[in-house]
Design goal:
heterotetramer; A: alpha/beta; Rossmann fold; 9 helices; 8 strands; 16% strand; globular; B: alpha/beta; Pyruvate-ferredoxin Oxidoreductase, domain 3; 4 domains; 7-stranded mixed β-sheet; 6-stranded mixed β-sheet; 20 helices; 36% helix; binds thiamine diphosphate; binds iron/sulfur cluster; binds magnesium ion
Chain lengths: 284, 569, 284, 569
């Protein structure tokens, strides 16, 4: 049995009180709860405070470039679909610099899990607006307030009929653990957008602010009803729904489409010299 | 009029609009000529459009292998009037122009008007009909040309094949009824050869070296390499994925390689410009990365379907920060095959980015080459054993040669940690200045190994020539041919060719430069990028340069003319 | 009065029968109909067959990089909001390489018009799948068929509550002309996705294929009803709706938020030397 | 222990965790010292985190302006025990350590323990209390330090200001009760100066030159330049927009400039690597483009908050294809101001990309400088008259100097057409090889103009020195100070500094290199990029190099030690 402790103890370079600590804890619990050992999982992250998270976890890790965790994760998965791949990064990383990859990942339906630490701000670079920063929110870089409509990651994911779309909140940890587990269980691209207070730079969307608003979807909610999910995904105001917003069980995981992968990870495959010879013959 | 050319060569040019099937005819002709024992080299001039405009496809062949595009045209098959107008002057005295019955011969005596519409019904087979005419003019064996058409079209519809074979036959028969005055070449007996394009050779070389992953975003002239791989994806066990953009392409390949794939990313200048951060990432995380950079003229969109060697400096310096890399620039089709494998091996061995620098001319041209010796290929480099299972695995362990043991995540119990930030030997973020210094030095130390494996430039000619022509990459052949033409009792001419352009090891060639009377470099760009690099690395200044930058491949004519103009030849 | 002829006659490098010709014609008519002279409009395009269109039009033109027409258009508009800016490019350009800019443009609500020649294929590069290529559609680059869910540009635009979202079709030219005009009239970011047959490389979505399916939205359709529009935007099958799918009249055009632009185009503004002196004083 | 330093200088270091307000104290102290007539130079060492870790801020000042970071520390204000441990050894014999009452003096005799919690209630003002202590130790005028605190915090809450002023007062009073044994400097009377950071100077210079558009994506250490501009956006009439990514940032700026804005794009290495295609686009469309590239150590994410000069080669070669560019690398804060304007002018005049190459050390360090002479500034370069209204306007007209008349779309009746493909003079796509050749040559011809306006390198010292130190960009000051220390009767030392690194005009400096006994280059990178460039352009080889690549700025100590180690000093 794997336990949370198996993922080690590190000293995160986060601010005291940061929501990232809760996510780290929940990730460990989710993995332990699913009995996944450190070497069975690969974390891929970008750059930002969120993207440091896997450094504080015993695991395989590729901590790449800002905005590029999804393509790396996709490549990793397509090289070895047997390895569990979790992409973990911030809102800026995934929805800002990496926006095009987010769209592509939704379309590809790669069987990986995406955990977005959504603090609605660029934390590591000291507090500029991220795509999810609210309208009129003032920052040093946007002293007159943000004048772009916030990006609604869940709405986009649902509009694209993504496989699994959920929202978690660092203040609702039990739910968060199970959302991460459900996401990992789901065969296809699974997004968990996690509301995470940034105590240093987001003084609007504080822990209290989220606590007042976040409410678990109740059992009557049917996440397979697309139209319903579409509206739900846009709810952002006095009440913010958490839980599984949408599931599309019909979607086929992407790796299944590659004949080359039917015989397992690429690293174990031999060079096909007969095929090379055959191709050469076709040029004769 | 092109310059004189060897007696034992002929050039066929097929010109018309995009969409008239010129390329197909040219390719089949090239294959038929190769099978008939000739040495063949084709070039294509295509506009950046799908239909219309003016394109042409040239098949240059001889009893010996031509190494460079031809000048004078011997047979011009004109599918449009514009073709006649543009190329008429290039047709030699003994040459012949084939054109449609409904076209204007513009007073040319040596022309043949083919009554296409009387011979066949469907326009779509006009091109193959013309192929029949050409084949017969060139005295190709019926069986050979038939077999080529069969092999090329056989995989499509039965009916289509039949129609084409009939058109071929009609063309041949019609020609026989004409008894034109045209002198073909004597027979040639070269055996056991392939007819391949540069991109086919690159793709095959990559497969033979173990490539099993390719992520790409379409861009001329690199797309064909991916298309070649995807065509064999199932049988050869390759994952080929079209990415959402070039940034995704390079990052996917890095992710795949990190997890044990052998990856290749084909692109062209604009796409490569977008990959710079990814190249730097590969440098920092020490992930093998093979990029095939197929150059076309820039800046920006430039001339999308034409050729240039204008991205050498970008290849040398792309990506921020400092890290080792190698740049290999095959000089011909055999090297496209063998060096794409070498490029992959270097990437894997030195865990670094390696760029295979080709260009539109090289990847699109077709050539007859001896069968590749695939038996003799080395085994793919394998990452370290993956079963250590010990706590202390360090992905970036400090070693003598800078190369750390590379394990694959998921292959065993060891945890593999890689980071784009500066990192400790274990792969975790650090800002420690001592570790930083060690890591910079460790990474750069790999340059030593790369240097020790450099493909030495090839020198041909007398030891102390009056004139030394320096070339790199795809201009190998044209420079060799030019040197051959310039060389005489009274004027000793040699060539120095680089098929690897980074790193450079001056001991391998500096003396050659110093011993020559005068040194002239030949490049397909406007600023003499390689000459600049040579000077940076050796201090040796090549002040005389032949530079071409109009989008067309270097020819012997072009080089000779430039040399004459500047009083050098 | 401006007429279609004022936009000149050029020789497009397109294939005979290509849907691009119709779009070109409709664009001319739309401009002439609105009495906009060539010098009053700036076209910004990317790279692709579609992106060549403005070359066949007398106009101001910046024909930039593949995928990057929107940022250039945004910059142009923010330098001179008085100039009418039309971005015109292909599906690959806008939704593939340029996907992230598409998202950003929707969020910014810059007052420009985006005309997407959507032939569901990469035309200029000879027929690889574009983001809008249908599932299982076979191409040379996807010989086993495309295995990614097609991108639904309208759905994404509606999900983001874009200002103006419409679909046109080259086979319905009268409507197309008026859609382009409406888009230009609308104060905010206006998307017209134009279904356009590619006779050379898309043998699935042919003129006939579209003709059979495309049907104008009728008058009873209310494009301001977001939920309705969301469903409508996903309709893609036996019937494909054309017309204005969604309008969000509440959105404020982006340029209005910049005090610097209240006094007109940047090119006419003087350097503020007193302000420079003042800032310098603050460092004393 | 740091090396000896001039008697007339002192260094204060404030160390602790991120989030303890060290930077604020340091900045206020710097300003107060400048106002008091001293010359000041600050450096900061910050980790890539928001709270915690170990950061420090050093204020080096003297009766004359220090040009380089200091070595030995005279006053250490330690906010954490770690600070004491790390910096204890750097404190000079006559130096003093300030620390909290609850901290461990670790046996240091020369230390002062401040009873923070007894003096004030809120932790948040501890830093300003320490500032009070420091100010009094340094004998700063009460009014001066008060005014600085007022000016700095005045724009925020009244109450906050009051609390801070009280804390300041408490600190001062407490110190007066201690009568510590510390020797401050004599007075200095430098007048009329500013206290600016490099990024403030760049931003102000840009505004003064007419910049009115800035698109950026946040990235350390470049963000501060955008933040500086956005702070004045309303009053100065600047449009500042945070883009969705760097590719958007560069393309937006190109679009804005095309429509008549004067644009600036600040970024760092990774972001710049993504902009290469855009740089090439500016080259091809001949759109002015000013990028401020603030370097930090790479590759990849590297050391985000530290310094390096590792992106010179990337700046030189970014973007595919061939086109002209200029690269300006200010040597100090005055040049940050004046050369950002010069960079914009070159971009506008030559309608080309220009890169202003700075680094974390330069942009983040604060310095006292003479007031900028804004009266003397040139008028901004204006595009051509925009009222020609003639049919035949050619955006890319072929001209003598390669510079075509540039009109702005929407400014008049003329139609302005620009294309990233190769184009005719009117701006439309062409594949004509003659036009292509002309256009390549036209674009490259602009290099001549750029060459004619190059900022000549500055030479200081005797004509035929025994030793010549070569530097570029931000290392100007440290190399000058080092030369000063090495120079003696028996050893003549000179410096050659480049504030523009491309193009290079060898006639301006080659002789200097040749006349010197030995030549040593000093760079903040691991491969000696500038020395390589010099060799490429002149053939002159600088074989002795002092290279620093641990992320920290060059210091005289570092250079002297390296020279000693290799027997050169
Ligand atoms: C190409 C590139 N651009 C910009 C940066 C600078 N950068 C680092 S982290 C970051 C923002 C991080 O925001 P987010 O992803 O939301 O993470 P957070 O710090 O809020 O957890 C940026 C812009 C970078 N490292 N690379
Ligand atoms: C950075 C970059 N990548 C790739 C290309 C090659 N390219 C040119 S056009 C094109 C696709 C065009 O597709 P689309 O935008 O749908 O236009 P269409 O030709 O179909 O009208 C591509 C991939 C390029 N020019 N630049
Ligand atoms: S800056 Fe914000 S997100 Fe980053 S560690 Fe601090 S609190 Fe967390
Ligand atoms: S390839 Fe397709 S889109 Fe391009 S011009 Fe031809 S028909 Fe039109
Ligand atoms: Mg964030
Ligand atoms: Mg298209």
């Amino acid at each position: 049995m794997v336990s949370s402790e198996d993922f080690g103890q590190f000293e995160p370079a986060w601010c005291p009180g940061c929501g990232n600590f809760s996510i780290l804890k929940c990730v460990k619990e989710a993995l332990a709860g699913k009995d996944i050992a450190p070497h069975e999982v690969l974390f891929v992250s970008g750059i930002g405070q969120a993207a440091k998270a896997p450094h504080y976890l015993k695991c395989n890790l590729f901590n790449g470039l800002h905005g590029r965790s999804l393509p790396v994760a996709t490549g990793a998965h397509l090289a070895n679909p047997e390895l569990r791949v979790i992409a973990e990064s911030g809102d800026g990383c995934n929805y800002g610099e990496g926006g095009n990859h987010f769209l592509a990942a939704l379309r590809r339906n790669v069987n990986i899990t995406l955990l977005v630490h959504d603090n609605q701000i660029y934390g590591l670079t000291k507090g500029q607006a991220s795509p999810t920063t609210g309208l009129n929110h003032r920052t040093k870089a946007q002293p007159g307030g943000v004048k772009r409509e916030p990006f609604h990651p869940l709405a986009i994911a649902v509009a694209m009929k993504a496989a699994f779309v959920a929202r978690g909140f660092t203040g609702m940890q039990e739910q968060l653990v199970s959302l991460i587990q459900e996401a990992m269980n789901f065969p296809g691209f699974a997004l968990v957008d996690i509301l995470q207070p940034c105590v240093s730079f987001n003084h609007v969307n504080t822990l209290q602010w989220y606590k007042k608003r976040c409410a678990s979807l109740d059992d009557s909610y049917d996440p397979t009803d697309w139209e319903r999910a579409m509206s739900k995904s846009m709810e952002w105001g006095d009440s913010i729904p958490t839980g599984v917003i949408y599931k599309n069980e019909a979607a086929t995981p992407f790796a299944d489409h590659f004949p080359a992968l039917s015989s397992g990870p690429l690293m174990h495959q031999k060079r096909e010299m007969e095929v090379v010879a055959e191709i050469m013959e076709s040029y004769a | 009029m092109g310059s004189d050319k060897p007696q034992n060569r002929l050039q066929v040019r097929i010109g018309g609009e995009a969409g008239q099937g010129l390329e197909t005819v040219g390719q089949m002709l090239a294959k038929a000529l190769t099978r008939s024992g000739y040495g063949v080299l084709t070039t294509q001039s295509a506009m950046s459009r799908i239909r219309g405009g003016h394109n042409y496809f040239s098949v240059y062949f001889g009893t010996e292998q031509p190494l460079a595009p031809g000048g004078q045209v011997d047979l011009l098959a004109a599918f449009t009037q514009e073709t006649v107008e543009i190329h008429q002057d290039r047709v030699g005295e003994r040459g012949l122009v084939l054109l449609g019955e409904d076209m204007d011969t513009q007073g040319m005596e040596r022309s043949l008007q083919i009554p296409f519409s009387q011979l066949v019904e469907e326009k779509i087979v006009y091109n193959v009909l013309a192929l029949g005419v050409l084949a017969d003019l060139l005295k190709l064996d019926t069986e050979v040309i038939d077999s080529v058409v069969r092999d090329t079209l056989g995989s499509r519809h039965e009916e289509l094949l039949e129609n084409n074979l009939q058109a071929l036959q009609k063309g041949r028969e019609w020609l026989q009824s004409q008894s034109p005055d045209f002198q073909s070449l004597g027979t040639s007996e070269q055996k056991d050869r392939l007819t391949v394009s540069g991109s086919q050779a690159v793709a095959l070389g990559a497969l033979a070296a173990g490539v099993n992953f390719c992520s790409f975003y379409p861009m001329s002239p690199a797309t064909s390499i991916a298309i070649n791989l995807v065509g064999h994806a199932e049988s050869a066990g390759v994952v080929v994925e079209q990415a959402e953009d070039e940034i995704a392409a390079v990052n996917m390949a890095i992710g795949a390689t990190f997890c044990g794939a052998k990856s290749l990313v084909p692109t062209s200048g604009g796409g490569f410009a977008l990959m710079g951060e990814g190249v730097s990432l590969a440098g920092m995380t020490e992930t093998p990365l093979l990029i095939v950079l197929a150059q076309r003229p820039g800046p920006a969109t430039g001339l999308p379907t034409r050729t240039e060697q204008g991205d050498l400096e970008l290849a040398l310096h792309s990506g921020h920060g400092e890290f080792p890399r190698a740049i290999i620039a095959p000089g011909n089709h055999e090297e496209c095959f063998s060096l794409s494998g070498q490029a992959l091996r270097l990437a894997e061995r030195y865990q670094s980015p390696v760029i295979l620098l080709v260009d539109q001319y090289l990847v699109d041209s077709i050539r007859s080459v001896p069968r590749f010796d695939i038996e003799a290929l080395q085994d793919p480099v394998q990452p370290g054993s993956t079963e250590q299972g010990q706590e202390g695995y360090e992905r970036f362990a400090l070693t003598e040669d800078g190369i750390s043991p590379r394990l694959i995540p998921g292959a065993g119990q060891d945890l593999v940690v890689a980071d784009s930030d500066e990192h400790t030997p274990e792969g975790h973020i650090t800002e420690d200045r001592r570790v930083r210094t060690q890591m910079v030095e460790k990474r750069l130390k790999k340059m030593e190994g790369l240097r020790s494996e450099v493909i030495a430039p090839s020198y041909q000619g007398p030891d102390e020539p009056d004139l030394l022509l320096v070339s790199w990459g795809s201009s190998q052949g044209v420079v060799q041919e030019t040197a051959g033409m310039l060389h005489s009792e009274s004027r000793q001419v040699a060539t120095l060719h680089f098929s690897q352009v980074w790193p450079l090891v001056p001991e391998q060639f500096l003396e050659c430069l110093q011993r020559a009377g005068s040194v002239i470099s030949v490049e397909s760009n406007a600023t003499g990028q390689f000459a600049g690099l040579l000077r940076r690395e050796t201090g040796f200044e090549i002040s005389q340069q032949v530079l071409r930058y109009d989008g067309h491949p270097l020819t012997t004519d072009f080089i000779l003319k430039k040399l004459e103009d500047s009083g050098l030849a």
